[in-house]
């Protein structure tokens, strides 16, 4: 299986700078892409359940890709709603209904909450809820008490509060977020921007599936299954 190449993960980018956050315009752009991705997943009846910077990848042109559907759930095609019964996502990104051990919950609203924690993190470098261990963390999440730093400003604060609403019924839906004034704002590009992390080693291709593809293609060519290898030819031209 050959998939498009993502040059780095969002968490890697955040970890690469002391501020541990994105400038406002950059965070806003990534968030809008995340919103598009979530809307598509939900339209296909998929609940991701583990949205976080570590599961968001970026291509060479800065396009965001949602990855790692290891704990995702595909709703039954004839399901009446998005009710879920299990969740194994990362603790810091779980909503109160999961922290409090509810038997059933809205899967889509779980993703909205996790996206809210993600937005909170990439704009402030902080988490709305913390704890010395998972039990204390879930206790704090279960209470639902948090604050938004003043530097976030009124529009971002209002959006975060809507996405991190304790009551999942009152919590923003994707439609609410799309109508929010924050989404429609335009932010001026600043000189400070986190660049994509790319490898500069001359042996980059050895760290990918490229050598295996070359070997497989050469083998098929030797057996007469394929015509002379286009990949090998391109590789030779590159080396030459």
Automatic annotation (TrEMBL):
- What is the required cofactor set for this protein? Mg(2+); Mn(2+)
Q: Which residue ranges run through the membrane?
A: none
Q: Which InterPro entries match?
A: Kinase-like_dom_sf, Prot_kinase_dom, Ser/Thr_kinase_AS
Q: Which GO terms describe its biological process?
A: intracellular signal transduction
Q: Which reaction is this enzyme known to catalyze?
A: L-seryl-[protein] + ATP = O-phospho-L-seryl-[protein] + ADP + H(+); L-threonyl-[protein] + ATP = O-phospho-L-threonyl-[protein] + ADP + H(+)
| GO annotation, cellular component aspect | cytoplasm
Keyword Magnesium among record annotations = yes
Q: Name one Pfam family in it.
A: Pkinase
One annotated GO molecular function: metal ion binding
- Kindly state which keywords UniProt assigns to this record, in alphabetical order: ATP-binding, Kinase, Magnesium, Manganese, Metal-binding, Nucleotide-binding, Serine/threonine-protein kinase, Transferase
PANTHER family from the entry? MAP/MICROTUBULE AFFINITY-REGULATING KINASE, NON-SPECIFIC SERINE_THREONINE PROTEIN KINASE
Q: State the family named in the UniProt similarity comment for this chain.
A: Belongs to the protein kinase superfamily. CAMK Ser/Thr protein kinase family. LKB1 subfamily.
Task: Kindly provide the name given to this protein in its UniProt entry.
Answer: non-specific serine/threonine protein kinase
Q: Give the source species.
A: Oncorhynchus mykiss
């Amino acid at each position: 299986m050959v998939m498009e190449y993502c040059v780095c993960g969002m968490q890697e980018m955040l970890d690469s700078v002391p501020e541990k956050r994105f400038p406002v315009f950059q965070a806003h752009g990534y968030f809008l892409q995340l919103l598009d991705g979530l809307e598509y997943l939900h339209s296909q009846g998929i609940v991701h359940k583990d949205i976080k910077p570590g599961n968001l990848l970026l291509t060479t042109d800065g396009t965001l890709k949602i990855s790692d559907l290891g704990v995702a759930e595909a709703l039954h095609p004839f399901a009446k709603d998005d009710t879920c019964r299990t969740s194994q996502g990362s603790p810091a990104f779980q909503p109160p209904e999961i922290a409090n051990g509810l038997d059933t919950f809205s899967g889509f609203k779980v993703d909205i909450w996790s996206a809210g924690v993600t937005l909170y993190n990439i704009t402030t470098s902080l988490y709305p809820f913390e704890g010395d261990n998972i039990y204390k963390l879930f206790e704090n999440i279960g209470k639902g008490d948090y604050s938004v730093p003043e530097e976030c400003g009124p529009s971002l604060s209002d959006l975060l509060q809507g996405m991190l609403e304790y009551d999942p019924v009152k919590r923003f839906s994707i439609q609410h977020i799309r109508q929010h004034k924050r989404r429609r704002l335009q932010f001026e590009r600043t000189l400070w921007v986190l660049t994509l992390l790319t490898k500069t080693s001359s042996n980059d291709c050895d760290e990918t599936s490229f050598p295996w593809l070359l070997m497989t293609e050469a083998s098929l060519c030797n057996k007469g299954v394929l015509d002379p290898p286009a990949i090998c030819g391109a590789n030779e031209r590159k080396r030459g």
